Amino acid sequence: MNKYMVLLSKGYEETEALLVVTYLRRAGIEVDTISTMDTLETLGDHDIMIKADKKWDEIHLDDYAGIITPGGMIGSETLAADSRVTKAIKDFHDAGKLVASICASPIVLHAAGIAKDIEGVCYPGMEEAVGFKKAHEEIVFFDQNVLTSRGPLTAPFFALKLIEIIKGEDARNDVAGQILLPRVQEALVGMAQGKCACGTTEGGESCCCGHHEHAEGGCCGHHKHAEGGGCGHHHH
Question: Phi-psi bin for 58: left (phi > 0), alpha (psi -120 to 50), beta?
């Protein structure tokens, strides 16, 4: 019972599903992608076809220590309407097993009847539909045995918290280093201080993208002498 499952239904958010699987496997955690559909082939919200490891009717729930649900509005609604899934989530929660939902998929927790008993987070604007005991503003929140998160860009932190819960801080920090999280955090701090995350060479070439200072482009998409891009600052 050391395995975890990521559920793939019609219209799930591919980023949230695959990023979690990738990071957990980096940490040496056994995780299966499970199709709740009639076939192993599943179609995500952005028309990306992913072949699941197993179908729902091929698994034994007792083999798993946790259930993870990615978001995507259609995918979340599909899971919430699936009585097999909602019963399993309720049973896992009652047994103290890990339950994790991100983005829109906390509505599955509502359908399972457990959202009202936990505090958590979800995609902004969906708090009423989820009906948490108390909704929070953090990007990741862990209450009892239920982990929740906000959306696609919070998925890395959702996955890292899963690793921490399952294997501890050392495993979490190891994967954080592999994915260059410390470097990204440093760059974000610099951007908050008005610095561009691209950087430029002495010759005027952008290190990350190969664009010149006087041309539009790079990862921030700004002009040397104009406002704009992801940095939103001037170089006058």
Answer: alpha
One-letter amino acid of 34 = I
> What residue segments make up the domains of the chain, in order of their start?
3-178, 193-236
Name the least confident of 78-82, 139-143, 210-214.
210-214
Instruction: Name the 3-class secondary structure at 4.
Output: strand
Number of separate helices (H) and strands (E) present in the chain: 8, 11
Please give the helix or strand (H or E) that residue 42 lies within, else none.
Answer: strand 41-43
Q: Please name the residues in contact with 16: beta carbons below 8 A apart, sequence gap of 6 or more.
A: 70, 71, 72, 102, 103, 151, 152, 155, 158
pTM of the model: 0.84
CA distance 24 to 118: 24
Distances in Å between the alpha carbon of 40 and those of 7, 35, 65, 78?
Answer: 11, 6, 22, 16
* CATH top class, domain 3-178: alpha beta
Contact by Cβ (8 Å): 116, 131: yes
Number of alpha carbons in the 13 Å side-chain half-sphere of residue 75: 31
CB 101 within 8 A of CB 109: yes
Q: pLDDT tens digits, residue range 18-74?
A: 999 999 999 999 999 999 999 999 999 999 999 999 999 999 999 999 999 999 999
The token pair that represents 195 in the structure block: 């610095």
